[in-house]
Amino acid sequence: MHYMKNVLSGNLDKFVEKDKVLRVPGIPKRILVTGGAGFLGSHLCELLLEAGHEVICADNFSTGLRRNIEPLKRFDRFSLVAHDIVQPIDLEVDEIYNLACPASPPHYQADPIHTTKTCVLGSLNMLELAARYGARILQASTSEVYGDPQVHPQVESYWGNVNPFGPRSCYDEGKRCAETLFFDFHKAHQVAIKVVRIFNTYGPRMRPDDGRVVSNFIVQALKGEDITIYGDGSQTRSFCFVDDLIDGFIRVMASPASLTGPINLGNPGEFTIGELAEQVIELTGSRSKIAYRPLPVDDPRQRRPDISLAERELGWRPEVELAAGLVRTIDHFEVLLTQSDEFMEVA
Ligand code: NAD
Ligand code: UDP
């Protein structure tokens, strides 16, 4: 974090040799973060504010939480716009991080048409805004663009294996179409784009009812409930701690204009879901038992990012090991649990 704060504040003197691709960003910038009340968005807003920028968070609070942005209100450079990006908005900004979109399968499948609209119309609206004001824009794309991958680990040049009309398609195809729009705006209107493909990221501020595997397992373990493994638990994922990912976002945004992406950001450590369950049980000291549940339709068998592009171009590599990141995430949920009555109260 110390390093990131120097990067963000432009105090790069002692870091320039370490990482030649970083440029000194102008301070302060006016930055729009869509989805800023969500898990990743709130961490990003906080880091940008700490670095001295003016941050506007636009969020429709479909999965985001007001308590995530509560700590940000101490900055008078922070403002909140309750807005659904499916509708256009006019804000003069220097940079846009387009994070608005539900990310957990139960959440993005709850209203699949709105998920597709958010990915496609939302991206279109943000790109038009970027084109109008000459803003640089980063798209939070996803490893889901690779679908159930037949190339392993996943490299950016792999086109993926995606079902166009399954339960995950609103998200997977929506994000793929968003990438198409980003690259077409870049070609047609010279918009400065950055497309990052995020692999499973976890950490404090995930919702207890988020439905993704890390939060589910930790909440179940802390409450002494069964740990629900979908399928036989042999499917794999690679888990990136939130601080590492946000560091990657900032580096990508600050990179030379020629680096448009797509660029993978994720932790290359690969674990089976069964191994994750064991680690969570061990780290929480829980007496929870494993309970096997049906595997969801189109659940990808394996996931691991090839991050050689990010390593080469950004000098970026995740630093937080899974066990260390889990401990910090468990701490977060333990605090929520001690606020007992409010544990499952999420709004
Ligand atoms: P999240 O659900 O915590 O945050 C999403 C935020 O977007 C929420 O605050 C939500 O209220 C807001 N939102 C959703 N639809 C909106 C709309 N139409 N208009 C305005 N706001 C809207 O999820 P997250 O994990 O923080 O993910 C953030 C972004 O990163 C998403 O775009 C997601 O697809 C992407 N991503 C995340 C992961 C991950 O592992 N966390 C992996 C791949 C991609
Ligand atoms: N999963 C699981 N139990 C849960 C939640 C998820 O076994 O309670 C599995 C899920 O089937 C998938 C993996 O964990 O194989 C990761 O799921 P998640 O929803 O976190 O992310 P995604 O599937 O989008 O990578």
Task: Give an overview in words.
The protein has 347 residues and is of the alpha/beta class. It has a domain of 240 residues: NAD(P)-binding Rossmann-like Domain (Rossmann fold, 3-Layer(aba) Sandwich). It contains 11 helices and 13 strands. Strand 1, helix 2 and strand 2 form a beta-alpha-beta unit. Helix 7 crosses helix 11 and helix 9 packs across helix 11. The longest helix has 22 residues. The two termini are 29 Å apart. Bound molecules: nicotinamide-adenine-dinucleotide (NAD) and uridine-5'-diphosphate.
- Distance between termini? 29 Å
CATH class of the domain at 7-201 and 241-267 and 302-319: Alpha Beta
Percentage of residues assigned to helices: 25-40%
Ligands, deduplicated: nicotinamide-adenine-dinucleotide, uridine-5'-diphosphate
Main beta-sheet annotation: 7 strands, parallel
> Which secondary-structure class do the elements indicate?
alpha/beta
CATH topology of the domain at 7-201 and 241-267 and 302-319: Rossmann fold
Spatial shape: globular
Strand tally: 13
Number of helical stretches of at least 4 residues:
11
Rounded mean pLDDT is 92
Q: Reading side by side through the largest sheet, how are the strands ordered? A: 3-2-1-4-5-6-11
The name of the CATH architecture of the domain at 7-201 and 241-267 and 302-319 is: 3-Layer(aba) Sandwich
Structural Rg: 19 Å
What is the CATH H-level superfamily of the domain at 7-201 and 241-267 and 302-319? NAD(P)-binding Rossmann-like Domain
Order of helices and strands: HEHEHEEHHEHEEHEEEHEEHEHH
Name the poorly predicted regions: 1-25
Please report which band the strand proportion falls in: under 5%, 5-15%, 15-25%, 25-35%, 35-45% or over 45%.
Answer: 15-25%
Subcellular location: Cytoplasm
Protein name: Putative UDP-glucose 4-epimerase
EC number: 5.1.3.2
Enzyme class: isomerase
